[in-house]
Amino acid sequence: MSDTLPPCPECNSAYTYEADSLLVCPECGHEWSPAAAGEGETVVRDAVGNVLADGDTVTVIKDLKVKGSSTVVKVGTKVRGIRLVDGDHDIDCKVPGIGQMGLKSQFVKKVSE
Question: What's the predicted TM-score (pTM) here?
């Protein structure tokens, strides 16, 4: 094989493989089309698979320790007006009582309004 397969867009695992016309990640089970892998905009999904967009309201589904502090973002904390960014922490937001911080989409659930 002359070219290497791209890493998983969900968990960044390098162990992706081809299954029929899809690429598959053995670590998180994510499947995607190779044609979609090269397109510009990535889709960010919450812990249950809902597509997130700028301005959405999400709820934290797990207690999260704030790095470098003794503060904890409690489960059930509602965060309004999120902004999607590239990187490991793909949500930029202002958490009530804590302030500006980045969250991983795998630890939030979209609130249906």
Answer: 0.62
Q: Where are the beta strands (DSSP E) in the chain?
A: 17-19, 22-24, 31-32, 58-60, 64-65, 72-73, 78-79, 83-84, 91-95, 99-103, 108-110
Q: What does the alpha-carbon distance between residue 110 and residue 113 come to, in Å, rounded to a whole number?
A: 9
CATH number 2.20.25.10 given to 1-39:
yes
The tokens of 76 are what? Answer: 């059930």
pLDDT in tens, 54-84: 999 999 999 999 988 899 999 999 999 999 9
Q: 57-110 — its CATH code?
A: 2.30.30.40
CB 42 within 8 A of CB 9: yes
